[in-house]
Structures are given as structure tokens and as C-alpha cells.
Amino acid sequence: MTSTALPHDEDAGPQLVRDGAPVEYVRALDRGLAVVRAFDAAHPRRTLAEVARAVGLAPATARRLLHTLQSLDYVGTDGQVWWLRPRLLELGQAYLATTSVWDVVRERLARLTEEVQETASAGVLSGDDVVYTVRVPYRRIMAMQVDVGSRIPAFASSMGRVLLAALDDDALEDALGRADLRPITPHTVSSVDALRAVVTGVREQGWCLLEQELEAGIQCVAAPVHDASGAVLAAVTVSSHTTRVPPEELRERILPALLRAARDIDEDLRLRG
Would I find Transcription among this entry's keywords (predicted)? Predict the structure, then answer.
């Protein structure tokens, strides 16, 4: 995709051509958003000179932009330093309010997939199965083919065990009593007592690691995600092949990334309300 500048009005900023079509562009808006992005966790407060340097603007231009943002209640100042104001949260809330729950989950899982370079998915409990609601495959020729809407047995999957762990004791016992525990691989937990112990452990630690119980060579880690009320909404998982990712790497590198993504989804959904 290529962009070139066309003649333009000074007030409008450069008009770009992208893929042969003109694209209107307002330089002042670009600069104003750049000023907002100059603040982050490492720099929650900045002087005018620091903002100007961070954004690459003349101090006079940065001052005008900051005062405009202050008049809109997006930034605050004590006369020496500047900071972001809570009203900026409205912009994020507007995005979340107009985005479906599964779009929120999909966006976070897409980032997770790129971070760990493995496939990430989400699913919900449906009877004795887990139904895939989101799947973000990593760019790999020999990726396992699973589509949204596919079903897998809850008792033999990492997402399923996370979702079973979220049930109350009576509902869990009902699910264990109904489950068809015939082994799928030589590694599948296939007794009620053993599965109950596994699910209890998942409930205590807040995540599940599963190795080759659903499919030979496939290992997964899973964690719950919660809706705005704090109830478990779904489970998210990362799957990999044992020939590509050693079990210790799954636990030490991929699991922490998955847990961070789950917390980010929780926070997005909490803000969404």
C-alpha cells in the first residue's frame, strides 16, 4: 500500500493518496492524539518541553494542543506539569460499548497469538462439551484445523476443565456423572475420581495445563475470563505441539502471557459493563 501527498489546504493538512484513492487527513487531529500518546505508565506527568520533545513539535504548538485538550477536560495541569484526565476513559468505553464481547476477546487473543506465536482460542461450556467461540490461528502451514462452532469434550480439554472448575459443587458432580470418560489418548484422565481431583486443582490454581489428553502431541494451557459481574464467561487457551514447544516452555513462557491476556480481557469487559 503506497501513500503520496497531493496539493492541500494549509488548514486541512496533507491530503494523501492511498491505493490510488484520496484520503482526507487533518494534521491538527494527528498532533493532538500524538500529545495524548506521549503520556504512559513510565511518563504519567510531563512538562511542556517534555511533551514537545516526545511528539517532535515546537513548544508553541504543543502548548496550544495541551490547552485545547485541557479545555475539553482530557488533560490537566498545575502550571508546571501536565497529566491525563479521567475523561479519556470515555473514549475507550465508547469503543467497548459498541463492540461485541467476542470482538473484545478476539482482539486480545490476536495480540496473544502474535506474542507467543501459537494458536489462541476461546470457548464456552455447552452441555458436556466446549464450543469454540473465537479462534486465532498462528501463521503456520500445518496448523490444527478447528473452526468456531466446533465442539470438544469438556472433560478432556483444558478449556473444559477451567469451565468445569467454575461450576458449583452440585453442578460439577452432575457434569462428572454424565461425562463419557472413555480415554481419547493413552494420556486421557478417564476416571471420575481422578478428574474430580484435577478439576479441584484447576479451581485452586486458576488455570489448567493439559498434555496430550485430547490429541496426541497437542498440549494446552487455559484460563478463565470473567464478565463485568465477575462471573466466568468463557475460557481462553493457547495450544501448541510437543515437538515445537517443550512442556517447561509452555509453563514458563506461554502460561504467563495467557494469564496476562485473560486479565486484560477481564478489564476490558469490566469497563464495557
Answer: yes
Nearest to 13 by CA among 23, 27, 2: 27
Domain hosting residue 140, numbered range: 99-272
H/E element holding 227?
Answer: none
**Locate cell 470438544: which residue?**
152
Q: Please give the tally of structural domains in the chain.
A: 2
Helix and strand numbers, DSSP H then E, in the chain: 10, 12
136: CATH? 3.30.450.40
pLDDT tens string 92-151: 767 666 668 888 899 999 999 999 998 999 999 988 889 888 898 887 544 456 777 788
Give dist(CA 183, CA 171) in Å, integer.
Answer: 23
Q: Are residues 22 and 157 in the same domain?
A: no
Rounded CA separation 160/269 (Å)? 21
Give the angle subtended at the CA of 227 by the CAs of 222 and 231, to the nearest 5°.
Answer: 80
Q: What's the pTM?
A: 0.65
